[in-house]
Task: structure prediction
Amino acid sequence: MKLMLVLIAAALSMAAAPARSSTGPAWPNTGIAERQLVGGGDAWPESMFVEHRNGKRIAWVLASPGHGHTKALDFFSGRIENVTVQNPGGYADAFVDSLGITHRGTLHPVSYFKDPRPDGAIGNNVHVNVSSLQFGNSVSCKPELNVSERLSDDFKSTIWRKVLLYPRSSASGCPSVPWDSIIGTGMGLGDGTMLVSAGHYVFRVSVDDLSPVGAAPDLHVVDESDLKKAIERAKGMKIEDGSAYLTASLGLNQAASSYASSPQNSERPPRPDYGAHPSTAALSTKDPSQLVDGYLGYIYTLSSGSDVSFDRIQTAVGGQLRHGEAGSGDASAAYPEGDWVTLSFADGGVASERSAFLHFGSSRDPNDPLPYCRLPFDKLRDRLLRAGYAEGREWGELGEVLLWTFSKTNDAWVEVSTRWARPNDDLMCAWTIYVRGNV
Result:
């Protein structure tokens, strides 16, 4: 609680801190500025804090916990944990992970957190949701247009006023997916960038101009003046879909993440539970079943935490991974039907942990039944048990994502999240397969 008050007071009182700091923390250059985090139901990204552990910094984002159980996202590695917090319904600056390890925020003079209350500032000069723009009554399915601004250091002038646009997460009944723009919470990272929560997204953006610092296919940042012009042009027009009008008027693209590669999917952005569609450049011509089989073959022979290594995984999947500063680029492959599978590796997350993450991505709404079950969970579980794994705890609600754990030793384990192929069906499908090891 003490840390919470210090963080919020620092943010909302706009304590002096430069927009850029040459002595600020150095965060991994992953090239990714967009993550998604869904805690279940309406639990979306909310609390944020920085943990210092063994000389490393971790930027944690927690979904709002309704009853103490939620999900935590390590933004830079992309790892998602099922965790327990002690302060459900309020700000959380600590949690306990599935192994019983406690993670706590460490106060840092440049890591300012903005709480979910209306308005407020991130750091000393970025103010969010300060005003809104409105279409006239002749426009239906109006998008939410909340304006944020950056002030000069002396607060006497405005450097920019912009709107951060992203696809709305909830159903709307409109012909197209509406644009949303409200910023929920935020945290300065001390290097001229900040994390902001927006719907079920978390974006890393620049303090200088609100632009994404890396790939963010579902994000558009638009000047307030351009939106005012679009609204002015709409006056006197009968418009049935305000978001579709805005998309066409400003030349936006809700399918920036390659979702609209097929005509039948051209109107809706991807909504996978974990991860995002790999870029076209990352897609491999390798058969996706070979990528999956190579990864699973590696898992079946895993015997200790030291086996979780970049070289071993790269060899197992055919040398597709690209080693980065704190992780890897994706090894990805597309199925003929337009879905995909992607694999990434992270080195140096919590403590001395290494991890690999395989995700089956679908080009369809995650609430729709799965048209293809790429890997039946029963088959995977049987093979893991035959390979000497012991089955551990499970989390989740029936009909929702379930998380299963398997381990051979106390320093290496496998986590599998699953989805039902369709309601009232016995077929459960593997959705993500996470390998973690301590070395």
